[in-house]
Amino acid sequence: MRRLHVPLAPTLWLVLVLTVGLVLAGCGEVKNTISPSPGTANQLTLMLDYFPNADHVGIYAAQADGYFREADLDVHIEAPSNAATPLQLLAAGKVDIAISYEPDVLLARNQDIPLVSVAAIVQRPLTSIVSIGSQHITSPADLRGKTVGDSGIPYQHAFLETILQHAGVPLDSVKEVNVGEGLVPAMISKRVNATLGAYWNYEAIELAQLHKHPNVIRMDQAGVPTYDELVFVVRKATIVDHPSLIRRFVQAVARGYEAARADPAKAVGQLIAANPSLDEKLQLASVRATISSFFPSGNHPWGWQNPKAWNSFGAWMMHHGLIHNPDAIIDASTNELLAGQGV
Fold this sequence. Notes:
The chain is α/β, with parallel strands linked by helices. It has 2 domains: 42-123 and 229-328, Periplasmic binding protein-like II (D-Maltodextrin-Binding Protein, domain 2, 3-Layer(aba) Sandwich), CATH 3.40.190; 127-221, Periplasmic binding protein-like II (D-Maltodextrin-Binding Protein, domain 2, 3-Layer(aba) Sandwich). Helix content is 34%, strand content 15%. The protein has helices at 57-64, 67-70, 85-91, 102-110, 154-167, 183-188, 203-209, 236-241, 243-262, 264-274, 280-290, 307-319, and strands at residues 42-47, 73-78, 97-100, 115-122, 127-131, 147-150, 175-178, 194-199, 215-218, 230-235. A 5-stranded mixed β-sheet has the order 2-1-3-10-4, with helices on both faces. It has a 5-stranded mixed β-sheet with strand order 7-6-8-5-9. Helix 1 crosses helix 10 (264-274). The protein is globular.
């Protein structure tokens, strides 16, 4: 669910020790600003990863509170017709910025598509193994003899394989079925015992509000290396040709997420005002559950992407044959456009 399906070429496992830093690390703090000279607002088209939802709350806060306008930006927010299109449209130059996922950025770069992640929206995996309470699946060991539904995405299969191996559960003791985007219906109907692909901050909350008492097993607590679930992605050429433009966008969005942290109810109200079909109760619960995951640990600025984590996750993808080109990992992300970073 919510993933770009990128065709993968078969590959042998390459043993790789990555010693090259993959992020263009900041060379000391600088006094950059998001206040441009007065003039005609620069237009940007932002393609979301999915339908507007709580994960995007800071973007809509930035729009409603005027942070884009103050940065001299005219941002047009679009939702994709399907989850496969954001990076495709970005690569084709049809949109300026796209929201995607760390695994999908690496998959695209493996095909020599020059895309770069410029900021993390969600700092840790949301993808989880979720089940309704009556299934009594509280640990990976409980998956033995069970049926697990997913969205048919190759790296979800690799997630499950890693989790089962880490737990000592035989791979052939678990049946894996593709349920597409119908993860919640598949669980409620008991077509599957659990799903891999539902989010702990969304579908699990939806199940809880339906009184299904969900159990959640998070990827990064079950053997899968941590990664950034949602990231802003641009073409490499855009960073080279228009770094100030992207810097102003990223830092305006950072202000939006800070506003959402300060007043989640107000920010959700702004999200709902722009997207009236959303369930306000679900969105507010999701935002409150996700607030801490919108921000990095330590003293890093909003949007920080941990270079060691990107390195480790890229090596994991290579280990599982999902990517084969080491250049897909090197410089796949940059922190240079964040507040206080760059040269």
